[in-house]
Amino acid sequence: MEEADSQDISQDTPADDVFIAPSIHENKILQGISYTHHAPIPRLIQSELSKECVLGVDEAGRGPVLGPMVYGLCYLPLALHRSLLAETHRFDDSKVLKPEVRSNLMEALCTPGTDLFDACGWATRVMSAQDISSDMLKPLGAYNLNAQAMDATIELIKEVFAQGVNVMEIYIDTIGKEEVYQRKLERIFPTTKITVAKKADSLYPCVSAASVCAKVTRDAALEVGYQAYRSSDSQSEEPTTSARAWGSGYPSDPRAIAWLKQNMDPLFGWSNECRFSWRTAKDLLEAKNSGIEVDWPDLNNDPHVMRMTDFYVTTLEMKEDEPEDELTTWYGKPVAESIF
Question: Global pTM?
Fold first, then answer.
């Protein structure tokens, strides 16, 4: 199962007063439902849909044990790519921007009247911890995190094309081997120049902006999720924000691990903010005297479990001198398989 690499915890921790962007759908976050949000097409593109655009994609929250993974996308006129994002607003990989800086940049993207609002379109795909884990833990045909991430990326891009935006160039931070990923995207979007690269969020400003959209949305989603746990008692000594209680949500963050230990139900573990497919969660649940072990029956090998075909008795098997099974004749005599 996926685990986090060592992180710069201070940079990955949300700002105490993180901006709550329109991409935060509170009810879906609290229910553990994955969802997509698209900002309106910006004025500079809407007025001339034939205008050539550049698009970037990046993610936030791949490794944490707490909270969603979010894919962010940002597009704008190709002519403004570096001048607006890199030179004017100093976008960079969200992991190297201070939490307050990336929160302010996201707020500018969402505020009517700003140059970023007028020029940049953006979207996010919030992949809940619950859905990530349930897909990874499927007994047959597990849906791994790389496949989930790739599908989220492709769907976000397709949805932008479907709105009529003239995307000429796409830049993406890689998932796995960049050449394999790039070839797949080139088959899906054959008329678009595509670049898949490591550290794309530091090399291409549109990917930096997508990184900010993803990271601030994740930060705000953590805050929404944590507030559901907070006591209404104003005198409570518990932390007031997710930044203070959950920290970054990574297994390497002592705040996240302390919260998981203190709030673990011995039978159910945690709610939908936790990725049960992570080794961190599994180890905490299986630690001595911490959780209740459930022994699930093996229905395939239990001789006392009846199958549907047990109710179909062939003519040769039906003997007059055999006593009838009360259960199999409860609703009448068994029928022969041959009639099907």
Answer: 0.83
